Amino acid sequence: MSAAILGVGLVLLNRYLISHGVRIPVLRRRTLEKEVFIVPGSGRPVDEELIRRHEDTLRFTDENSEGYVAGLAMLGFMYLQNAIAYGNKDLYLRARDYLDRARDVMRSVNVSDEVRMLVERLGREIEKNKAGLRKVDSADLIC
C-alpha cells in the first residue's frame, strides 16, 4: 500500500517539476534504449523520429524556463548534425532558427552557465559549418 502511495507521489512530483520548467520531460523509454550521440562533425544523422519526439516534448515545457532553452539548443544541435550529414542547407537554417530562439529566450530567462555555454557552443558550431552546406534544389531530389 505504501509503495503505491510513494509511486503516485513521485509521478505527481515529476509532473509538477516538468510543468514549472525545473525538469525537461524524459523521452519514452524505447527511445532512451538507443545510444544517440549528438556530435555535428560525426557525419551520422540523428533519427527524424527522435527529433520529432523532442520537438513534441518541448511544446509542453514552460517557455520561460532554463529547460526550454536547453531543449532549443539540443534541437539546434540535432538539426545541425543532420544538415552536415546530408549536406542540406535547409536543415542548417532550421538549426540556426533554434539558436536564434534560444538566444531570444535567454534574454528574458536567467539560465545557468552550463546552458549558456551550450547555446554559445551551438553558435560556434553553426558558424564553423556555414560554408560547407548548400541549398537543396528540386533537381537534387530527382534521380
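the 2nd protein, sequnce then structure:
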Amino acid sequence: MMATFEVSDEKLEETELALLIGKITMLWNQLHDTTRYCFPIVLGENPKLVSAVLDPIKSDDVQRNVVLSVIHFALPGDQHADLRDEASRLFNLIGRLAGQRNGFVHSSWIRTDGGRAEVSSVLKKPHGAIDRSEPLKQGMELLRQIESALSQMFILWGKLQSAIGPRSHHPQYNPS
C-alpha cells in the first residue's frame, strides 16, 4: 500500500517560494551572462578576455558599468547615440532589478506564528524591499521583469552586432 502525505498550506507556500527563488536565481544568472557577453560583441575579442577583465570584479554592478562603458567606447558618434541610450536604459533597469533579486535570494526567510513564510524583520537585509504579505506575487512579477530584461538583452545583442558590423578574427595568442 502506498503511503499518503498531507501537505499543509504553509508547507506548500514554502515550497512554492523556494521554487520561485530558484527560478529567479537561474534566470538572473542567465541575464548576468548575457550582459557580460556584450563585451566581446562590441570589441570582437576572445571571450576569455571577458573573464580576465570582469571576473576579478566581485560587484555585479561594477561589472555592468564596465560593460556599459565598453559599449559607449565602441560606439562613438551621433549615429550610435540612440543605441547607447537604449543600452544605458536596459543596464539601469537590470541594476534596479538587482536590488529586488537580492532581496529574494539573500533574505532570511522565516515562518511566522501564523505559519506564513516571510522575511525576518530582525535579520532583514538593507536591499530589496519585499512585501511581507505577498512574497509569491511580488516574486512572480520580478521573474516576469527578469524574463523581459533577458529578451531585451537578446535584442540589444543583435543591434550591437549590426552597429559594429563584420569583424575579422583576431589572431589567437599562442604562448608556444
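Confidence is low (pLDDT under 50) at residues 168-176. The chain has one domain: 9-164.
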